[in-house]
Give the backbone structure.
Amino acid sequence: MIEHIHFYYCNDLHSHFNQWPNIVHYFKQKKKHHQQTNEQSWIIDIGDHVDRFHPIAEAFKGKANVELLNDAQFDFATIGNNEGITLEHDDLYHLYDKADFQVTCGNLKPTNKQKPFWLKDSISFVTKHQLRVKLIGLTAPFRPFYHPLGWDVESPYDYLSRNIDQLKNDTDILILLSHLGLTDDQNIAEKYPEIDIIIGGHTHHLFKNGELINETLLTAAGKHGKYVGEIHIDWDHSQNKLSNKQAFTVETAYLDQDIATSNTIRKMKEEAHELLGKQIAYLEQQLEVDWFVQTPIIKQLTDKLKEWTKADISMLNAGLLLDHIHKGHVTYGDVHRICPHPINPVTVQLRGIELLEVVRGALDEALMRLELKGFGFRGKVIGKFVFSGIDIDTYVDEQGISHVQHVYYNGKLIDNDRIFTLATADMFTFGKMFPEIARSTTKKFYLPEFMRDLLADSIKNSYDKDNHTD
């Protein structure tokens, strides 16, 4: 006898709810179809469903996302870094308290207390024809972020090396729910052939028809709900082996919508607007934002960052602020609207000569106009860099390009060998934008505060002196 089982999944939605009603309708129709054909199916989320750039995720601290997964009849989920490191400890600890689905993430646990009741190392179940299936979730091990939030995260390789024999010992089909990224998925497939299927995410890669590495099937469905994935498995009970496995993705833009889900999202938006409507200041005039100009508001935020972290110098990019704040009452929702990024403050220690390279790099026109996607940045372009704590002399060459001539700290030229503490946005500790910052071994991340928390405090302190009220 051949048993047919089916899995449907999404990954890295990042609270982009535009296609969510389409996804829900598709999954519900598929589950109904398999019930009619007397076959079993399950629906899975691979993490980063939550992203606090969206007012719904921000206002409800991810719990509205869980409610949407419940309504969509999901069966299983794992944890992405946006659930893991953008929520305060208690918000993550209780995030899935009311989940109707099971959650697995084997390499994550609280530092000094018991795991939440919903967090499982793995999930095992038996199909109606006694096929044993096991799911194991693993998430990206961002230790410098998890540790200050009260969580321990283990290397996925250490976890698998220690547990793979036990994981495979009492199961027929082993499936990894991986929020690790494409490179790790490929490496794990090479190193652990015991894993039959890897459902991937984190790096937003798309396998429209899956990819085989040895006998392991890799699959992933991009980002933001533009695609969803499906996996179809045939198990031959007469030979007691997996006879076929296939993976596909489906574009969601042209699917029908689940009307109830659309209505739920609309109501959640209205409730989020109310929850974020707390007044923090009153403006007599509009606060202007310009991505390529040092406006008062970005300078105030840069000064606030330096003061708050007790750094010698601070640096921020004007592209962090997306829009003006209009005159009148200012709410936390306004601050979230113009600074939605899940980006934390960070300090690094740099020698003077390294700091000079950072300053020179910040004047690079190509970097200022870079349309960055990722590293927590939810804006359009990097924009002009603004500093606090140093003075910079520049000159313009014959081609109209600005160059650093002198940099002063407390009125004196920067000492090349002195150690300075630089505060900036954590996005610059990743990638190649500022190699001196990225390779620093003295990074200190400030969590759970986002940059917008400093912005809200700066606005409140600067513009609410008279306690204006309605």
User: Anything to note?
Assistant: Residues 373 and 379 are 8 Å apart (CA to CA). The chain has a mean pLDDT of 95. The longest strand covers residues 241-251.
